[in-house]
Amino acid sequence: MGELVPIRRQVVVRGAAASAFEVFTAEVGAWWPMGVHSVYGKDATVAFAGERLVERGPEGDEAVWGEVLDWDPPSRLRITWHPGSDPAKASEVEVTFAELPGDQVLVTLEHRGWERFTDPVAARAEYNRGWPHVLAGYADLASGETPVLRGEGPLWLALLHTEGPALPDGESIFAQPDFAEHVAFLQRLEKEGVLVAAGPIDLPGMATGMTVIQVPEPADAATYVRMAHEDDQSVVRGLLQVRVQPWHVQLAGG
Question: 165: which residues sit within 8 A by CB, 6+ positions away?
Answer without folding.
Answer: 4, 5, 121, 124, 238, 241
